[in-house]
Amino acid sequence: MFIRFSAIILLLISSVAQATTEVTVSLDRNPVLVNESFVLEIVANDSLDANAFDLTQLSQSGFVVGRTATSSQTRIINGSISKTTRWNVVLLARKIGTFNIPALRIDSVYSKPLTVSVVKSNYSTAQSTQTIFVKNSIEQADLYLQQTVKLVTRLYFAPNVDLQSGTLSDPMLDGASIKQNGKDKDASEIIMGVRYRVIERIYMVTPQSSGTFTIKSPAFNGEIGTGQRRSNFSNFGGTKPVTSVGNDIEIKVSSIPKKYSGSWLPSDLVMLNEEWQPNQDTYEVGEPITRTFTLLALNVNEEQLPEIVGKYPDSFKTYPDQSESHSEVRQNAIVSQRVSTEAIVATKAGKFTLPAVSINWFNTKTKRQDVATIPAKNITIVPSSNQQSSAPMTNLQTPIFESSNVSNETCEAATGQDNTDGTTQSTSNTLLSPLMWIGWVLWVLTCVAWFITNKRSGKSTNQITKQNKSNKNYDLAAFNQSILKQACMNSEAHLVRDELLKWAKVEFTQPVLTLTALIPLVNPELQQQISILNSSQYSQQSTSWSGKELWNAFKLFNSNSKTVTPDDLPPLNG
């Protein structure tokens, strides 16, 4: 027991004595080629945590620091224990010259500094010998401020590469907007008789300041398989890290020309179109008209496209809707589009000329200012066909009054009133009595028949009315007035919009898909509140909106729009 205990103590003492006493560094090759990655290996004679080595010590080396792989190993030979921790750091040289890797500190022990020589290489030849490399290309290097250009990055893999993992960073340019367009594309390309797998990624670069700049290439960092078996004493060993960076690109950005006027919009091509629904030259007063503007531009970021708004006389009310914009790459060009929709309602009949709609833009091809225009439009507004004349009602009532007069005269003749000549009265009674009695009998029979028919139709009408009410109540199950009220009280704009559209679906016969389409169908008070709601959500200028005021306008519209049903009519003989 004493011997075993002594052996354990000796092992512990030897392990303590094994605390980091040496740190060595080496390169997989030296000199190295520019734009080609190489591996710096750092070895410490102890079992250490991966974070024991601080990578920031390499920030002043002049190299691009890529991925780092850490492994540890423990050996026991004839009772002697040896431990090592290894860091493999991928570095990449971006410039030609001589660079120094400083003395690296690990656990209070420093390594010896290294000198690295970076030499020039034929870029195309170097690519053909590399297993992984990056290429960048740009359509145009001479740009104007806020002109969007397409940057294409291609990542190449040789067929013998066993890729385990990897990431591709984005390009970098100070003071510019850079975003990826679409998804990565997978293709293949033959280089020097070797078929490479190619991953293509497209970026949209929009410089926000003028001058000369350099777009820094995206960097690929990954791990590839080495074909070696993993050691029982090693945490790593079947892979090695790789880093590849493509060519940087220099661009020149010109400022806005002094002679240019209007909102700045640099583009290769700008088109402005419109669409009317319904598409006609004559409309009625109060008829809702949908006017849609489509602005299309090449090599422009979608956020740069301005809102298009029509100009109208005072007798027109307009209700703008939320615009939509998007960008995509078509035939090697960036195509951006903004669609703006507004509802128009004429309040007065007459002939009107709607002014032309135009937008200034700068043609980057001809380097001069151009104008995209929608010409003026002549339209005719006629009175609404829903207006009804009261004359037919008067004509329908006239026979009733005439019948009443005849009946009164007949009654007077029957009772002998208002007659001064007794002889004439007696003669009239004698001559008219048979005819009068026949008339009275026919009149009574007509009244009875009318009463029976009206009673039956009344029941049918009541049944239909009750059925309609039942159907409407069933449809209104989707609309909860309490939810609308609570949403208004809490000023929850999105919930208010949803509930108003549910209500409109059952309240009006015509389809109502947007709040803009609902505006012409309600009273002025509710129109104003819905317009304010739209503006608060979609207008470029901040607009305050009160849900309580909209709720009050909604209640007012409901109270004024109640229709009288047959069940609400007073009794005919009341």
| Main beta-sheet strand count, sense and barrel state | 5 strands, antiparallel
- Number-wise, the strands total 31
What is the helix fraction of residues, given as a range? 25-40%
Rg value: 44 Å
Number of continuous helical runs: 9
For the residues shown, what is the average pLDDT? 77
Shape descriptor reads elongated
- Please identify the structural class as seen in this structure: alpha+beta
| Oligomeric state of the chains in view | single chain
Strand content: 35-45%
Gap from first CA to last CA: 122 Å
Regions with little confidence, pLDDT below 50 for 5+ residues? 13-18, 231-236, 388-432, 455-477, 563-574
3D structure, described in words:
- This protein is α+β, with helices and mostly antiparallel strands and 574 residues long.
- Helices cover 28% and strands 37% of the residues.
- It has 9 helices and 31 strands.
- The chain has helices spanning 2-17, 123-129, 391-415, 422-475, 481-489, 493-507, 515-518, 524-538, 547-560; strands at residues 23-27, 32-33, 37-44, 63-77, 80-93, 97-101, 105-106, 109-110, 114-119, 132-138, 142-144, 149-157, 163-168, 176-180, 185-191, 194-207, 211-215, 219-225, 239-245, 249-254, 266-267, 270-277, 282-284, 288-298, 316-320, 324-330, 333-346, 350-354, 357-363, 368-374, 377-382.
- A hairpin with a 2-residue loop joins strand 7 (105-106) and strand 8.
- It is elongated and about 135 Å long.
- The termini are far apart.
- The relative contact order is 0.07.
